[in-house]
Amino acid sequence: MSIAAIIPAAGLGLRLGGETPKAFREVGGDALLVHAVRGLKAASAADLLCLVVAVPPGTEDTVTKELTPYVGETRLLVVAGGAERSDSVRLALELVPVEGIDCILVHDAARAFVPVDAIERVVAAVRAGASAVVPAVPVTDTIKQVGPAGEVVATPDRSTLVAVQTPQGFAPEVLRRAHAAGVVGATDDAMLCEALGVTVLTVEGSPDAFKVTRPQDLLLAEALLAERRA
Ligand code: CTP
Ligand code: MG
Q: Positions of the site: Transition state stabilizer (predicted)?
């Protein structure tokens, strides 16, 4: 059995700003999307049967050419993404082969620097029988729930909170069922599984799997890469 991976990379990166969609923004001379693909390949090597990337409409051919040198034997499919992240994942999921896959990873292009060991923990947990697995890290801020006027409603006990990352890993049948149910407003795929009553397991994530979201995240990414290359 093999792994399939979906990379949602179709977002515009409005919070990051700039002219170029976020997945194509470069760190250390390579696009975030290229870093993300390299990470998945490094973690799953020959096991990665198929990679489906959702990109901004109109960039499919360019992205196919750019990624081909990095995928080796893995089958690469590039599809136009949708309006929301969950639409992009759903469109990509339609292209994932049904046969021969025991784990589907969904990995944000924007989390381009996730370490190999975090990816491996996700895959291992799915292969050990979990239906849905998310890498998680403790939250460092105190989190408040607020009301419409910005007033604090509650302060959840921080020791019970985690921040979740990608890649998230799924038993293929569970991910398909979750997307078919089509819950609106889901910001990750695990949330769609939770809506079905599926238990989502957390495994240890990594601070390096932060999501490039705002301009200062690019500075952090450059520094991280420089340290890794040193
Ligand atoms: N994504 C996607 N399709 C969308 C929206 C987002 O494939 N319609 C992808 C992004 O490319 C990114 C991941 O989902 O890899 C996480 O989304 P986010 O960090 O919010 O990226 P953007 O939506 O591009 O950024 P912003 O919300 O700041 O515009
Ligand atoms: Mg977004």
A: 15, 22
